[in-house]
């Protein structure tokens, strides 16, 4: 079979990683290009909308100015009278009226229509010029920003433009305001307020990507930035969708009085990105690709070096060198695990070979030791039974009872299953306490309380005997005769926050007890499991067993008695799925 070196794996992984890098970076470049394109599109559409809003805002501003000038003219009786005489009187009569009015108001100050228009020009920079047209005399007078006025007869062209509403001139557009005699409400003429249309060019230059068209209801063009489309075709478009289809662009529309605005952005230019942006994104992709390739190459060479160490070690083992050790625990990955297992394999293989020659002798010695160390616990139990029966035959029934209690306790330790019922555990406790009743006759009383429905609850064996033994060693008051110990079983719905319910066995006595500080210290040791571990069974041992079997929420805690003594509380949560213990009678039948 061909022996493959690490170079093959190196080239394979390098090709795979390179393809992954190419795909990932290509996807990222495409994503950034599309994202940038969409961002430019959103920005362009936003600029188009803002441009249209600026144009509509300018139209609203000029319309408000025209309305304000018209209203201000009617608010001043002097200027209003001057305008009406200008529109109706012959030039000589109008000049006589102005002279008479000037003399009458010499002290107050005379203000004619020229001064009124001059004030308007100074107040509003967007105002180009103002024209007055007299319907009776068919004359037109143009007032400019430099305070000059030009009067001429109104020809047919002027009449036709006023009648058709064609109020657009080169670089300006107008609003028509009729002038009436307040006394008769008859129309004497009109005032044309002309505003500069160059403002639209400034707006369009600011938002350079989009184009703008401004026209009035008579399809007269005020401003057309491109000059490519016919206003008649645009005006015939029914809605925005039809207009977008006609122009091939994104469109924003606006209207103020008789003027319309259209701002549009051609779709082929809307999402166009500057060439420099495209170049920057592509260069960034190339740089990231190069850095990724360098990293992949460095990582794969390092990986190949580690694989070569493992392969070299295996080759040396195949040649019979079991002292090979590969460096491990440097990177914490699977190759370190393989190296560590390889080292352990070499160590164990070397030990196995060294011990192989002594295996048969050691096996024979082990068999001999096992035969010599076998003791039949049933023999001890039967011996105790024989001694007990001998004591009964000799009339010593107390010794017989003590031996029986000891035999039951001993038999439970060596024969019972690890999980028994509460009834069995309480039964063994009673037998254990009977031994002390013979020893301390008349000095203490024992009480066991357990509801009948709890007797079949499963529990690990011998959790009460160490607690009771601890009481007889440390707690009983030898000089008193009112000692008692009470064992009670209770159901609790919840113990601590994590518990889902369980049982507790309370062992209460009136013995010597402990100080509150000692109780708290002991509970801390039990909770943190820092009590010294002994080979014999004790409270710490029982606490560890309860926590190991039923979880950290269970175990033993101590409380000081109300008057004296100590309360030892054992908490456990029986597992319903745990196999039910075999009863004592079944054990006896099995032994028989």
Explained architecture:
By secondary structure, this protein is of the alpha+beta class. Helices cover 55% and strands 18% of the residues. Helix 2 runs antiparallel to helix 3 and helix 14 runs antiparallel to helix 15.
Fill in the keyword field for this structure.
alpha+beta; 18% strand; elongated
Beta-strand proportion: 15-25%
Main pleated-sheet profile: 6 strands, antiparallel
Secondary-structure-based class equals alpha+beta
The N- and C-terminal alpha carbons lie at a distance of 65 Å
The number of helices is 19
What is the residue-averaged pLDDT? Answer: 79
Main β-sheet, spatial strand arrangement: 3-2-1-6-5-4
How many beta-strand elements? Answer: 17
- What ranges have pLDDT less than 50 throughout 5 or more consecutive residues? 1-5, 366-379, 495-500, 533-537, 577-592
Q: Which shape, going by the Cα principal axes?
A: elongated
Range of helix content: 40-55%
Q: Kindly provide the radius of gyration, computed on alpha-carbon positions and rounded to a whole number of angstroms.
A: 55 Å
List strands and helices in order, with pairings:
Layout: H1 6-75, H2 77-88, H3 91-104, H4 113-123, E1 127-134, E2 139-143, E3 149-153, H5 156-164, E4 168-169, E5 172-180, E6 187-196, H6 198-206, E7 211-216, E8 221-224, H7 231-236, H8 240-247, E9 249-256, E10 259-266, H9 267-270, H10 275-318, H11 334-356, H12 359-373, H13 377-393, H14 397-415, E11 419-421, H15 422-439, E12 444-449, E13 458-460, H16 465-475, E14 483-492, E15 502-509, H17 516-528, H18 539-550, E16 555-560, E17 566-572, H19 584-591
Parallel strand pairs: 12-14
Antiparallel strand pairs: 1-2, 1-6, 2-3, 4-5, 5-6, 7-8, 7-10, 9-10, 11-13, 14-15, 15-17, 16-17
Helix pairs in contact: 1-6, 1-10, 2-3, 10-11, 13-14, 14-15
């Amino acid at each position: 079979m061909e022996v493959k070196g690490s170079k093959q794996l190196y080239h394979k992984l390098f090709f795979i990683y390179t393809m992954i890098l190419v795909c990932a970076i290509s996807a990222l470049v495409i994503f950034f290009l599309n994202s940038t394109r969409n961002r430019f599109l959103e920005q362009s559409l936003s600029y188009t909308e803002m441009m249209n809003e600026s144009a509509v805002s300018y139209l609203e501003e000029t319309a408000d100015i025209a309305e304000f000038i018209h209203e201000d003219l009617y608010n001043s009786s002097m200027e209003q009278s001057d305008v009406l005489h200008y529109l109706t009187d012959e030039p000589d009569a109008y000049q006589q009226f102005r002279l008479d009015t000037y003399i009458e108001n010499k002290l107050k100050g005379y203000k004619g229509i020229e001064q009124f228009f001059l004030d308007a020009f100074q107040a509003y920079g967007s105002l180009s010029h103002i024209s007055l047209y007299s319907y009776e005399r068919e004359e037109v007078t143009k007032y400019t920003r430099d305070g000059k006025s030009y009067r001429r007869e109104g020809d047919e062209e002027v009449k036709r433009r006023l009648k058709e509403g064609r109020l657009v001139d080169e670089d300006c557009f107008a609003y028509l305001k009729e002038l009436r005699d307040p006394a008769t409400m008859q129309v004497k003429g009109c005032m044309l307020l002309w505003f500069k249309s160059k403002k639209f060019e400034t707006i369009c230059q600011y938002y350079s990507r989009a184009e703008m068209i401004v026209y009035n209801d008579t399809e007269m063009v005020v401003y057309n930035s491109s000059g490519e489309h016919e206003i008649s075709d645009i005006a015939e478009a029914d809605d925005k969708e039809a207009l977008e289809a006609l122009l091939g662009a994104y469109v924003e529309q606006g209207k103020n009085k008789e003027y319309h605005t259209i701002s549009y952005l051609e779709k082929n230019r809307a999402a166009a990105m500057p060439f420099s942006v495209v170049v920057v994104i592509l260069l960034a992709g190339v740089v990231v690709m190069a850095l990724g390739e360098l990293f992949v190459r460095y990582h794969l060479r390092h990986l190949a070096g580690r694989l070569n160490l493992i392969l070299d070690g295996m080759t040396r083992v195949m040649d019979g060198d079991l002292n090979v050790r590969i460096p491990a625990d440097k990177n914490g990955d699977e190759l370190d695990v393989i190296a560590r297992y390889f080292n352990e394999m070499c160590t164990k293989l070397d030990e196995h070979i060294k011990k192989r020659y002594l295996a048969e002798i050691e096996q024979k010695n082990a068999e001999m030791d096992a035969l010599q160390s076998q003791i039949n616990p049933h023999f001890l139990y039967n011996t105790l039974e024989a001694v007990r029966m001998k004591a009964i035959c000799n009339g010593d029934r107390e010794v017989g009872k003590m031996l029986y209690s000891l035999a039951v306790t001993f038999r439970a330790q060596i024969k019972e299953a690890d999980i028994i019922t509460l009834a069995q555990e309480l039964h063994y406790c009673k037998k254990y306490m009977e031994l002390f009743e013979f020893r301390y006759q008349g000095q203490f009383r024992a009480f066991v309380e357990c509801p009948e429905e709890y007797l079949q609850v499963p529990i690990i064996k011998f959790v009460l005997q160490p607690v009771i033994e601890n009481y007889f060693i440390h707690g009983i008051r030898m000089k008193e005769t009112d000692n008692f110990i009470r064992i009670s079983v209770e159901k609790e719905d919840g113990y601590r926050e994590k518990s889902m319910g369980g049982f507790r066995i309370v062992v209460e006595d009136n013995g010597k007890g402990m100080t509150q500080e000692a109780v708290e210290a002991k509970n801390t040791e039990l909770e943190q499991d820092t009590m010294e571990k002994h080979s014999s069974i004790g409270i710490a041992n029982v606490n560890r067993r309860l926590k190991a079997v039923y979880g950290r929420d269970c175990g033993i805690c101590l409380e000081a008695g109300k008057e004296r003594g100590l309360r030892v509380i054992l908490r456990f949560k029986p597992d319903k799925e745990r196999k039910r213990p075999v009863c004592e009678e079944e054990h006896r039948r099995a032994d028989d």
